[in-house]
Design a protein that fits this description.
It comes from Nonomuraea phyllanthi. This is DUF429 domain-containing protein. The protein has one domain: Nucleotidyltransferase, domain 5 (2-Layer Sandwich), CATH 3.30.420. α1 crosses α5 and α6 crosses α9. β2 and β3 form a beta hairpin. Helix content is 44%, strand content 12%. The longest helix is centred in the middle third of the chain and has 17 residues. The protein is globular and about 60 Å long.
């Protein structure tokens, strides 16, 4: 099995792709890392993988889309008896974002009200190209692509999940890589170890590829029946439900 992780930013300069090869029993080998990944490289990586994890919202909240549509037409209706902050919550956060918060205590960035929306605009173009090439994406996580959230994965696996991104001092990122390799001695970063220690984008791409493996093995959260409809349009963050070692033990 080959899994791919994509740490997707609005621009290529902050985007990284990682390839993990799981063909050796009980091992996973990092066989490629690309920084500065453009749309074409991402599409090729996804189409060549058994499963790809993308660290980016795959859609917007349904209620936000309805709100913007109503606002354009000039007939927004505000629910009576509901505080403004409560009403806006469902506009700002998707069903999956609220599930992630309930399960992990982490709050994903709002694709409606934060700069992450720029990355999702780019992601929409990537998903459209994948569909054009005959690989349509099920935003619930079935099929070729699953939405992932590296910080929540790391927290669930008992690893450092804060303080390693965009830091001038790379020591925290290095400690994260050390802890990851201690927790997963079967993971071989090979010649790409230095770039993982120098770039949090690369490390997040590796974590995304690990999460893609968990999804491929069915070791992640899936939408409940009442959440499936929203997940199909908004996207669904698949959270690993087992320790890291199950990624090789179950393969």
């Amino acid at each position: 099995m080959l899994t791919v992780g994509v740490d997707l930013a609005a621009e290529a300069v902050r985007t990284a792709v990682a390839w993990l090869d799981w063909s050796a029993p009980g091992r996973a080998r990092l066989v490629g890392v690309a920084a500065g990944a453009d749309d074409g490289l991402i599409v090729e990586a996804v189409t060549g993988a058994d499963k790809a994890g993308i660290d980016c919202p795959l859609g917007w909240p349904d209620k936000f889309v309805d709100f913007v549509t109503a606002h354009r037409a000039g007939h927004v209706e505000v629910p009576e008896g509901v505080a403004g902050r409560t009403w806006r919550r469902d506009l700002a956060w998707r069903v999956t974002d609220q599930v992630v918060y309930a399960r992990t205590g982490l709050t994903p960035l709002s694709v409606s009200a934060d700069r992450i929306a720029h990355a999702t605009m780019r992601c929409a173009a990537v998903l459209a190209e994948l569909a054009r090439r005959g690989r349509p994406v099920d935003r619930r996580g079935d099929g070729a692509v699953v939405e992932v959230y590296p910080a929540a994965c790391l927290k669930g696996w008992g690893l450092p999940h804060r303080g390693y991104k965009r830091a001038a001092d790379l020591s925290e990122l290095g400690r994260l890589v050390d802890r990851l390799l201690e927790a997963a001695p079967w993971l071989d970063l090979g010649e790409y170890d230095p770039i993982c220690r120098a770039s949090d984008d690369a490390t997040d791409a590796v974590v995304s590829a690990l999460a893609a493996r968990a999804s491929a093995l069915g070791l992640v959260t899936v939408p409940e029946p009442g959440q499936a409809g929203a997940a199909g349009t908004e996207g669904w963050i698949a959270l690993p439900t087992t320790p890291l070692d199950r990624l090789v033990a179950a393969g």
